[in-house]
Amino acid sequence: MSAPLPARLLAASLALASCGVARPGPAPQPAPADLAAFEKALPTPGHDRVFLAVPPDLETRLAIDPAVVRAVDPGIACDPDAFSLSMSEGKLGLAGHVQTTCSPDHHSQSLLKLADGSAWATVCGAATGTQAKAWLDVQVGDRSVHASTQAPSTKHLPAHDCSGWTKISR
Fold it and tell me: Alpha-carbon dihedral of residues 157, 159, 162, 166, nearest 10 degrees?
């Protein structure tokens, strides 16, 4: 008969410890100066086309994977032709966690929660592509004819027109 589950877990833990495999300790924390530099690098409120612009050296110090930044960037993560709500999220290394929600009206919002507990938000809008419209008005004598046509707009462009990051007060 085998040992009860808690005893087996304890035995497995002791076996791993004797093999030199360390158990996970407390999660590493960002240096306060690096977190302050990250906050300073956030695009400020206003009309901005940037989602996150973290300098490469700061990305390295905070262990931020650029692929994660691209995965939550509304200009890339939001499908401009989608007609349903979608969400993407990712861990920004030691800096914190970000969540981007894309709406079917081609706008998005992102919530950034930093390791120090502060929260930031930005809203991004989508630009539309070009649209063709033509009309014709003809009048002969007392008769007039009006004709018009409007081609559907080209694909929606990615939602990169962001408002900048605003700190959310607690």
Answer: 180
